[in-house]
Structure formats: structure tokens, C-alpha cells
Amino acid sequence: MICAAAGNNLDQVWDVLIVGAGIAGAMAACRAAQMGLSVLFIDKAAFPRGKACGCCLNQAAVGLLNDAGLDVGTLGAIPVDRFEFACGGATVKIPTPAGMAVSREILDVALIRHAQKAGAVFMSGTAALSTEAFPDYRVVGARQNGMATSLRARVVLVADGLGGRLLSESGGVQIAARSRVGLAGTLEKATNLYAPGIIYMACGKRGYAGLVRVENGRLHIAAALDTCAARQASGAGNAVAEIIRESGLPVPEGLAICRWHGAPALTRRRKTLFDQRLFIIGDAAGYVEPFSGEGMAWALASANCVLPLVARCVKAWQPELGRQWELQHRELIGSRQRTCRAVTLLLRNQGLTRVAVEALKLSPTLATPLVRRINRPFVLA
Ligand SMILES: Cc1cc2nc3c(=O)[nH]c(=O)nc-3n(C[C@H](O)[C@H](O)[C@H](O)COP(=O)(O)OP(=O)(O)OC[C@H]3O[C@@H](n4cnc5c(N)ncnc54)[C@H](O)[C@@H]3O)c2cc1C
Known about the structure:
Elements: E1 13-19, H1 23-34, E2 39-42, E3 56-57, H2 59-67, E4 78-87, E5 90-101, H3 104-117, E6 121-123, E7 126-133, E8 138-144, E9 147-158, E10 173-175, E11 181-187, E12 198-204, E13 207-213, E14 219-225, H4 227-232, H5 236-247, E15 261-263, E16 268-270, E17 274-275, E18 278-280, E19 286-287, H6 295-315, H7 319-347, H8 350-362, H9 368-375
Parallel strand pairs: 1-2, 1-9, 2-6, 4-12, 9-18
Antiparallel strand pairs: 3-5, 4-5, 7-8, 8-9, 10-16, 11-14, 11-15, 12-13, 13-14, 16-19, 17-18
Helix pairs in contact: 1-3, 1-6, 2-6, 6-7
Bound molecules: flavin-adenine dinucleotide.
């Protein structure tokens, strides 16, 4: 259990205040503290907390965590080097560059602790409710254990994820038509039908589900589903079981009693990624369906990339910094999200997906350019 900050002067004006301690927020806190800035990061949740995610870090994500000094291998993460795709009873195996599978309960706590070690101050159970700009700082109104509090910082980073509502009043979020919703859960005991080191991807008419072994042999399952499939099935477990069955993969026991975490409409973009003395990072800045398992890499890269602008903003705010952030975000993440979106649109057409599977069975190397593109390292400006 990670505890709230104690003994710190919360009345001070922090250099950076980060809302959300998921992957993006905790990485930003770690990097900002490593740069010598004073950092407070807050999260409404108590950690460890569950989160709808597939728990697969691709090679680029593992590299970004390593660069920040966090070795995921020490967390009991399982190395992953193969992707097995199943659709309508046909399967194809595709080698992937070495990634890691680790639950978000373990990973997020490790990254928060790493940021704390670097000097960042963390407050859990603290929900940001509002934010207002003043010439020299921003104020964030928050609630901790039922008590209202007011926090001040020269720069605010909003990393409140897909479900974040801190900036909802300012609008600007566009949700894609027919966007799917997310689900994830972990089976503590699962049959040996699913081997460690492989991401099994089951594709059905109304969505897809990924299955992977995480630490301690637990089987983690994450799915993206059409909203109607999620509503019509009698329970999340049944909706996921239907997709796995349809793909031809074996349905693990216990899906109906598994504890599921949900995620709202997945494919969305935000029109503006900044405000005065405020930048938006991670999923809060825009997201697409997670088929290619890159979301955490995007979140980590956005946290790294915004920091040079944050350091300049600590000295003085200029709207130009915000515009630069939008440009950099589009260059760094936008092109990758477009690739991922193209793949997920193809997967909605069962006929085309079957053709792709048959072609890949004949020649698995056809997938190499896409696999390389997804895993390419981030070149930060
Ligand atoms: C079904 C599914 C499967 C996925 N599979 C993968 C995968 O296999 N690999 C991969 O790389 N990515 C995957 N992703 C994507 C990945 O989970 C996200 O991209 C990543 O978690 C984004 O990190 P983040 O820090 O932006 O947001 P989050 O991790 O969601 O963190 C946001 C944090 O903000 C906090 N918060 C929200 N509002 C407030 C507030 N008002 N005040 C304080 N705190 C607040 C929340 O409690 C939360 O802790 C998947 C996503 C889904 C939905």
C-alpha cells in the first residue's frame, strides 16, 4: 500500500503538479524530479489499484522505463517474444521483439516508488476537481479523505487517463463513431493451455481479447468490445468468453467470476493539448484501440517528451510552449496512433482478417514491417 505524503509543506508553490499517477503521470514525476524540479503528483486512487490494460510492455516501452532507471525484469515480469493471432479457427504465429508482461498493480506501484526515490512527493486518494490559471502559477482544487485542499504549481500536467474528467468542462474531446470499450481481468489460477511468453490474440466479430501470462503465472485477459456486445452479454466474462470461443482458442475457466475492470470508449482525440501553464499527456491527450499494445509506450514517451517544455514553463509561461507541445505530440504519437487505427479498422472486417491470417500463415515475414514500426524506439526532440 502506498501512503499519502506526510511532513511536506503542501502550501508551497511546486514547480510541477501532476494529476494522475498512472504510467504517464508517474514517469513524468520521476523524470521531472531527476531534472531537479520540485514535484507533487496526486492520484484519486489508493495503490495498488486495478486498471483496464493488457499489461504487455512492448520493446520501446521497456526501453523507456530502463532509461528512467527502472528495470522491469526485477518486478517478476515475464519476457514476451511471440504473438499468436486466432480468427475463425485459424491461427498464425508472429515473432515480436522482446517485450515484457507485468500486471499494472505491480508496475504502477514500482514506478510511483521510483519517482518517490527520485524526490517527487506523492499523494494517493487525492482527486483533482478543478484548476484555474493565475499569471505565475496554477491552482488545483482537490479533495483528500473528504477534505478540500488547494494546491499550487508553476506547471500542471494532466495525466488523468481515458476516464479523466478534470478538464471535462472545457470540452474538446471527440470520441470516434463506433468506438469500442475496454475490459480487463486476471485469473489467479488458469489452465496450462496458455504458455508464458506469448500474447494470444483472439479475434471475433464484435471485438478481440488478448491473453498473456503475467508474474506468478497468473493469466491476464484484456478485451476491446463493441458497446452492444458488452451490453447484450450477461456479464463481462460471458462477452469475453464468446470472443475467445469464436476465435477457436480454448476458453479458460473462471471468466464469469473474474473481477473485471472497465474502460470507456477507447478511440478519442482531444482538440487542444494545453492551456495556460498546463499540458496534457498520456491517454488524456488522445487514444486509439489497444490492439497493437502500444498505449503504455505512448504514455511514457509523451511524459518524457513534454519535460523540456515543462522546464521552460517553470521559468516563464509562453503560449508558444503549448503550441510546440501539440506539434511534438502529433509527430511523436500521432503517426503511431494512425497505424494502430488502420489495423483495428481492418480487424473489423472478418473477411479481410481471414485473408490476412491465411497470407501470414504462408509468409509470417509479411508482418515484419508492421511489427518493426510498432516497436521502433522513440526519437525524442
Ligand atoms: C483494454 C485495454 C488493453 C490495453 N492493453 C495494453 C497493452 O497490452 N499494452 C500497452 O502498452 N497498453 C495497453 N493499453 C493502454 C494503456 O493501459 C494506457 O495507454 C496507459 O495506461 C495510459 O497511461 P496514463 O497514465 O495516461 O493513464 P492511466 O494509466 O489510466 O492513469 C490515469 C490515472 O489518473 C487517475 N485520475 C483520474 N482522474 C483523476 C483526478 N481527477 N484526480 C487524480 N487522479 C485522477 C486515475 O486514478 C489513474 O490512476 C490498454 C488499454 C485498454 C483499455
